[in-house]
Structures are given as C-alpha cells and as structure tokens.
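User: I'll paste a sequence; please echo it back and then give the predicted structure.

Assistant: Echoing your sequence first, then the prediction.
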Amino acid sequence: MPATARKPRTLLLVLLLLFGLAFPTLAADDPPVFPLADVKPGMQGVVYTIFDGDKIEPINLEVIGVLHNAVGPQRDVILVRLLGEKVAKTGVVAGMSGSPVYFDGKLGGALALKLGTFTKDAIGGVTPIADMLKVAHYPLSPALPKTVPVPSGPAAHRIASGPVDNPEPSMEGWTVTPSAPVYASEQLSLPDGLARSAAAGAGQVLVPIETPLVTTGLYPQTLATFGSAFFRHGMALMEGGTAAPTPGDAKLKPGDMVGIDLIRGDLSMTAGCTVTAVEGDRILACGHPLFGFGRVSMPLSAAHVMMTLASSATSTKIITTGPTIGTLTQDRQTAVSGTLGPGPSMIPLDMSLETPDGERKYHFEVVESPQLTSVLIATAAFNGIAGSAIYGEGTTLQLDGEIDLQGHTPVHLEDLFAPTDQTTPAGFYLATKVQSAFAQIYSNSYERPKVTQVRLRVKALPKHRWAMIDNAWADKSEVRPGETVKVRVLLRPYRGAPFIQEIPITVPPQIPRGMLEVVVSDAAFLNRNVQVLAMTSQGQLPGLEEQIKLMNRERRNSHLYATLLQAAPTILVEDKEMPNAPLSTINVLDQRQNPGGARLLWQSTAGEWSVDMHEVIAGQRLLMLTVK
C-alpha cells in the first residue's frame, strides 16, 4: 500500500483512539471506580454534562483537594475547579447535580456541590461514588439494612437491579471495605487565591447545586405565594415546556438529564437532575438529596436540555420534560435512585371554578407524599383561581369538595372565604384550608392514608361578603327550663349598614337551676374552644376514621352560632361527647391511671343553634342567663 494511502487511515485510527479515550465510560458496560484514597491535589479529571441540545460534553477539571467531614460526619467531598471557556462563563450550573466525574477513566463520583454564590471560579464539590452507591442498596421495604457494604474494585459501580427485601444486603460480587476513614486533624487549607475568589461575603460554604424546578402553567402570583416552600429545598424555579415522546426517552446514559414529576396536567412542576450511573433498569443521580425524604415513590420523566442560561447569580439549564420513564424510589443524602419502567400512581385532582364569565375545569395529578402533597394540592388550587378574571377583585369564594381515602369516609370540604383589605387574596385562604385538611390527614398517628381522588368545586360570589359580631343580647336574662329565648346579634358588614340577626334558642326542659352561658360566635371560635378537636385528635382516637369524622364535624365560617353551655362535666370518648356525665362515671375515670381515649371537660354543651348568613362571620360575644 502506498505511504500516501496509509497516512489517512493511520490518522483515522488515531482520531478514533482519541475519541474513545475522551469518552471512556459512556461506552464501557462495567467501568471501575476510582477510590477516594487515590484522589490527590492537582489531579486532572473530566466531568460529563449537557449544555444544550442533549449533547453530553466533557469538561476538564482539576482537583483542589479532599475536604474530610465537609458536609457531615464521614461525608467527604472532592473539591474541584472546572476548566474551559463554557464554565468560565456559566460557573457551576443549576442542573449539573449528578454529572459523573472520572479520573483515569474510572468513575470517581458526581458533581453535586458548589462553593459560594458569586464565586469568580467554577469551584464545585464532588460526592464520592462509594457514598452514592450505598443508596442503591437501601431496601424499598420499611426495614432498613443493618449494615451497608462500601464497594470497591472493578465491579463496585454495579447497582442492584431490583429492590432489596432482606435487611442484610447480598454480599455476592462485592468486596467489603471499611467506611471512609475519620480524620481527626487532617484538614484542607484552601489556597489564598481560591479563598479570595470565593469570598463574595462572609460564611461561604459548600452547598448543593440548585435543582431546576421546571414549571408550565404557573402564574407569577402562585410563585410569589407558594414559591418559598420549594426554594428552601434548593430549587431554582424556571419556566419550561413539554416534549413529545421519543423512542430513546428511557435509554439514559451517564450525563443525561432526568426529571422527577411533582405535578402533571394543567399545571406541571418537575425537578431536574443529571444521571451519574446506569445499571440495567436502575439509575443513580443528583449526588445530593432532592428533598431528603428517604423512601419515596415519584415519577421519573424524560428531560431534555434546550440551552444553558448564564447568570452571575445562578446559571441554570433550560429544560423541557417528556413522558414518564420510571419511578424514583430513594431520596437520600448522597444521591437519589430509581428504576426505569412504569411510573407510580399519582393523586388525581379535579377542580372546577364557576364565575360570572362561565365555568372552567382543571385536571391535575399530584405526587403522593406525606411531606409534599398538601402544599402541591394548595399550589394547584390557588393557581387555578389566580388564572381567573375574578382574581384580586374582592370576590368571595365558596368551596365545596371531597378528599377520597381508600377504606375510609371521604373528608368533606365546605366553607366560605372573603377577601380582606390586605394584599392577601381570598384564594390564599381557600388553598390553605385544603392544605390544612391534607396536613391533618397525613400527620395522623394511626395509619398511612391512601388518597385516591380529590374534587374541588369553587364558586365566585359577588361582593365582599364578611360581617363582624359587634354586639349581642337576649330578650330576657331569667328563664325557666323549656323556655325559648330570643338572642339578637348586631352584625356590622364590610362597608355596609349594621343589621340585627335573631337566633331563637330553647333552654332544655331537664336543665338544673343555676347559671348558663350563651356563646355567640363564629365557627373558628367553636372549633378551637368548645369541641376541643385538637385535644381529642392527638393519639386519643381509635383510628383515622374517627379523626375524619371529627374533621367533618367542624363548623362552617358562613354560619352564625349560638351555643348554650352549663357548668356540668362532659366526657369526650374518642369522637363522641357525653355531656352531663354522672359523678360515678367521673370517679371511675379519675381512678384509672390511663383513661385511654377519654377526656374530661368541666363544661357541657346544652344546645347549639346556627343560621346560615351566606357571608363570612367573625368575632364572639358572651351572654349570661339565670335558670329559675
């Protein structure tokens, strides 16, 4: 073969060899890991991530050193400086969390942390791969492993392909080595130049790289109202879009983006991380916690990077999200882990909003999480209201809805919400009412509830419907058993003329002589003080069903109440009231060291009357009656 013909072929072979060396781990099925003990200052490495167009790119880096116990006991971090023109412009980017880092072609960990906020250099922290691999061995069952082996050697990157049900993980294929050593005195001193470049302000520390929270259909008012619930978890909210399904959505590689869906439907919210490692149908990502909830069940979705937006504060990836491709199962301190395949079930939320302009209907699906569901439902409900023309016009909102739970009576939601002269709209109070109901359901001490469906019907009523109890009096102060008394209440509406509402109450025929109290009040006062719901629902009930019954008995704030109280003891047993308890029963209760679900109150409700005022009532007054 002529020499001139051999040169192009030789050059091609050299280029192919160089290309293979540049991407040593993307093609290898079983790359070895790089031990943390072998990481030294000045060592060169490479991190793989996406800046635009779903193209995984290598970014060179240099090891500054290892910070031992940097983010917790035995939680070491490899401090690195990213090199190149792109990172010189963007710095460490929100969404880079989980980007795999390699030394000498071996997987060393994931880029997960950043130093400071306005650092001049792209300084990042790498979570060692050994710490991340522990997450893959956490069982999906409630029992946690007693010991977790620390992997090492060529097969150490392998991830268990299915859930581990045995508290003792299988040792097959793993070499057990001690955990990362605890260094009592060895510390890494940052170079003076690095310290100066990171010192934009006092207290610059390593913090998790922000996680992009991609939203579609989210109004600015909703973000201003509920955004703090996500900001405190290190989320960087950004507008995104949706992408059509493609055949390669579930074929993830190290360096790809993956989404974690929180809400889908007419409003969507998806967190995004970078994939660190893939083994069969299991993935590791992020290199830090998403929320830190431990065992979870959240949908994984395809995520695509459109571009990277550079910012002096927080550069971030602009992302679109696609179909569900799996389930996130672990959300731990050093990584998140999940399985590719079908996604988990979500809570369907149907909401209708009736206004003078017509009716609008929304459908959402919300992730089921004791920590997140309540605020996500509230966010979706408020967002539906904020998009209406009636938002901010002083309109009163009427709520009617149900929360269906598997094996239990539905929780009923019925109330009225009027705006105030403050900047807080009525929609906020409606959303937090729903949020409070979910918080009570998920915080119960009896069982983990299974919410199957949520239905919310909201009606916008004209005018500012609100009235304050200004005064109250009875037509007589002395009464006989069985006699009817007319209680008159002076109400002062919002910017309207005061008016009087009459409530007839009847003294029980068997009432003894003495003093009676008449409490004229709104619903909130009775829910707090008379029924004593808080006292009877904290571990004193037989189960969740009884707690739901108490929740369904809460008064409505559109009613005006008159409650007759007498100085006689009441025994609260589970979700039931026993007024006028006899002395013998009280003595038995007093002699028991552990009365269980029974509580004793020194007042009894002799009667309760209400009038639907079709407006929010506020305030209370106390009257005294003498029974002859």
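DSSP finds 13 helices and 33 strands in the chain. The longest helix spans residues 3-22.
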